[in-house]
């Protein structure tokens, strides 16, 4: 029969510390992955909302351009009893004119 060498206090402490560290590491990795997954879901939802709002802005821009067209202005003017003269209207393509 061979005798086992008796462990010192440092060796037993080191072994316990290693096991506890590995368990904490495993739980930590699981927690971080879970947290990352939940943040990804929130990010996808936010990106979806941004895309939806951007599409709405694009639609409103197109609608605004249609409302400001010269043919529409002519129709509205004639409905109100005015005469629309295209040459007397100044056109600007700038969103915010420079002063």
Automatic annotation (TrEMBL):
Record's keyword annotation contains Coiled coil: yes
Recorded coiled-coil stretches: 36-63
Record's keyword terms, sorted: Coiled coil
UniProt protein name: Cell division protein FtsL
Native source organism of the sequence: Thomasclavelia spiroformis DSM 1552
């Amino acid at each position: 029969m061979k005798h086992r060498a008796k462990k010192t206090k440092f060796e037993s402490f080191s072994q316990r510390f290693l096991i506890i560290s590995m368990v904490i590491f495993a739980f930590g990795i699981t927690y971080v992955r879970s947290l990352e997954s939940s943040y990804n879901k929130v990010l996808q939802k936010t990106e979806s909302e941004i895309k939806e709002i951007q599409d709405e802005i694009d639609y409103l821009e197109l609608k605004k351009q249609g409302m400001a067209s010269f043919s529409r202005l002519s129709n509205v003017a004639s409905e109100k009893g005015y005469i629309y003269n295209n040459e007397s209207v100044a056109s600007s393509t700038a969103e915010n004119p420079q002063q």
